[in-house]
């Protein structure tokens, strides 16, 4: 069966995602879409130049929305990260005005194409844009997913791993809520060295959970200040999610999806299948964590309601 993925938006992140997919042989057909045809054609030509040295073949299709009809996954990498250059508050919502208009335009074109696979959105602000894509694409909620705190959770695992000198893959647990300033590490879910990290922190005062949480929250901006964009971390999160969908892995991942309880998109763990979200995973959070998740959800919902009302 042919695996077919589309990437819409060939900026720093979209190009990195496409590179991962092509070089790993994860997809048989890759649709690349971008308004900047000069840049798009240059990237497609560069990928074609690499083909003879790769171990697998990927058919590349350029700027054809009709080709989305039978795609398994679409990744939205739309955005204009340069808008954050002058943002001293480090708020992903500075990209909202640009990306909400793009979500309406592209979401409508996706709907018109007849696409019925899984739409993965990485565009900032992630939760609001994923929700807008769901509205304008007309896809069921379980088929529209934001990468959400999949990246924040990876940053948490890195920070904990560095503190305790273990590989980040040996750390389990989640960051929850908005992929933004109101996200938080749910320390009650985090385990390392076969122990809850809260227990280890009680025994070792050098493990400062509050400091680690701030390191994770500010992680993207540490990268941003060095090169004025981020791409590899978020691209690896997106590809991880795409591979889970294509392989029908039923892997448990923290992503942004529609929570009926809160009436909005925010992140918590789900089981991923080829149809999108196969199962929502309940968490036994502390009262403090529940309050943080509620607050984060309210913030996202208010911003989505305002954006959607403006676009309708």
What is the compact description of this entry?
The protein has 312 residues and is α/β, with parallel strands linked by helices. 44% of the residues lie in helices and 21% in strands.
How many β-strand stretches? 12
State the separation between the terminal residues, measured CA to CA.
39 Å
Mean pLDDT equals: 94
Unreliable residue stretches: none
- The residue fraction in helices comes out at 40-55%
DSSP helical segment count: 10
Q: Return Rg in Å.
A: 19 Å
Strand line-up of the largest beta sheet: 3-2-1-4-5-6
Strand content: 15-25%
Please provide the ordered H/E string of secondary-structure elements.
EHEHEEHEHEHEEEHHHHEEEH
* Major sheet details: 6 strands, parallel
- Assembly category: single chain
Question: Would you tell me the structural class of the helices and strands?
Answer: alpha/beta
Dominant shape: globular
